[in-house]
Amino acid sequence: MPHYLLPLLFVSFLCASLCHTHPVATADDLISLFKHATGNTLQTDIEVTADLDFSSSNLTLPLGAFSNGTCVSFSGVIQGNGHSIKNLKMDNTNNAGYEDAGLFCSLKDATVEDLAIDSSCSFTGYSAGALSVLVTGLLTVKHTTNNAAVNGSWNVGGFIGFVQDMEQPIVISFEDCVNHANVTGDGDYVGGFVGYICNNTDIVMTISNSVNNGIITGSDYYVGGFIGDIYNNTNAIALISNSTNNGIVTGSYEYVGGFVGDIYININMTMTISNSTNNGIVIGDGCVGGLFGLIDFNIDMNMTISNSINNGNVTGSSYIGGLFGSFDKNTNMTVSIANSINNGIVDAEDSYVGGFVGEIGRNTNTNITISNSINNGNATGGFIVGGFVGVIYSESDSDSVTLCIMNSANKGSVSATDGMSCGF
């Protein structure tokens, strides 16, 4: 077993030994557990025995949240048994005491299994996630579906709003989960599963056998089909495997990706995508990609993309790519793209357009390899367009990039209305 899963095993054993299981048959049963909670954490297990209808509950704040802004985290196992949360409509945008929205205010050392959040629910707040506003410890989500619209300003996700400031090792995993709902933010950090992952140490984030079908829309920066932004984490591992984004992803400004909008100033990070597909159209202004919008200012980073496909058309102004919008100002980075395909049309109004990568710029000690891969999508733009990579450039003698393209083919047409285009 990987070492990073041992804390999760310990927590599961501890809760199995110490936590009492509460059968929950009504919305009031669930609400009452938090009314009697003491301290900062409610530690118990919950067995959902029927659909929970909140239409007459008068619940206005997330479970565990109080009008003075405090939050009691839930810790334990929620066994949904295929039942649904219904008719919970929450809008806290004008609530001065607590302005966020979600079923829970915080999940800490928790497991959620076989639960559905029904389309009769909706969650609107400053930060919002249908399952929880915030994660403050280990979390496993399995066989869980969100159908409820999520709306907010910053930190908005189909399941989780944000994961922030964790100094202890944590593992957050989604397995066999689906978001069907639209997720909309009028600020930064909007994602189909998680809005924002920031300022954590020793974090592992996995999404496997999962799907986003919702339309993801951000009115500002950092928008992704699965994750809006991964920012300023140390010793981080992120894995997306056997997963698909089918939703349209739109950002009004920059850093928009079919999977992840932005990965920014992390230290010692590993990012792996395998056997995964983006089918959604991706639209933004700058740094827009079928999988990732922008990878920038990271130190000691390894990225592996294998057996993955972008089928969605990618549209923007500058730094537009079928897989990546831009790699910029990274140090000690290795990128491997293998056995992968871009089928989407890549179209920019302005410049720096590539069938795989729009821009590779101002990086230090960076090695990028593209092998056994194919670009089938047409790449068009105003200036500097390539079948695989739009532009590679540096600003100083310390910048150093090695790009290797082998056993790969560009089959798409390449055109630049104002000049400078090439097949690779």
Topology diagram in text:
Layout: H1 6-18, E1 21-24, H2 27-35, E2 41-43, E3 45-48, E4 52-53, E5 73-86, E6 89-91, E7 104-117, E8 122-124, E9 128-129, E10 132-135, E11 139-142, E12 145-146, E13 149-152, E14 156-157, E15 160-164, E16 170-175, E17 178-179, E18 183-185, E19 190-191, E20 194-198, E21 201-208, E22 211-212, E23 216-218, E24 223-224, E25 227-231, E26 234-241, E27 244-245, E28 249-251, E29 256-257, E30 260-264, E31 267-274, E32 277-278, E33 282-283, E34 286-289, E35 292-296, E36 299-306, E37 309-310, E38 314-316, E39 318-321, E40 324-328, E41 331-338, E42 341-342, E43 346-348, E44 351-354, E45 357-361, E46 364-371, E47 374-375, E48 379-381, E49 383-386, E50 389-393, E51 401-406, E52 409-410, E53 414-416, E54 421-422
Parallel strand pairs: 1-3, 2-5, 3-5, 4-5, 5-7, 6-8, 7-10, 7-11, 7-12, 8-13, 9-14, 10-15, 11-16, 12-17, 13-18, 14-19, 15-20, 16-21, 17-22, 18-23, 19-24, 20-25, 21-26, 22-27, 23-28, 24-29, 25-30, 26-31, 27-32, 28-33, 29-34, 30-35, 31-36, 32-37, 33-38, 34-39, 35-40, 36-41, 37-42, 38-43, ...
Note down, in words, how this protein is organized.
The protein is mostly beta strands. The protein has two helices and 54 strands. The strands form three sheets. It has a 33-stranded parallel β-sheet that branches. An eleven-stranded parallel β-sheet has the order 6-8-13-18-23-28-33-38-43-48-53, with no helix packed on it. Residues 1-18 have low confidence and may be disordered.
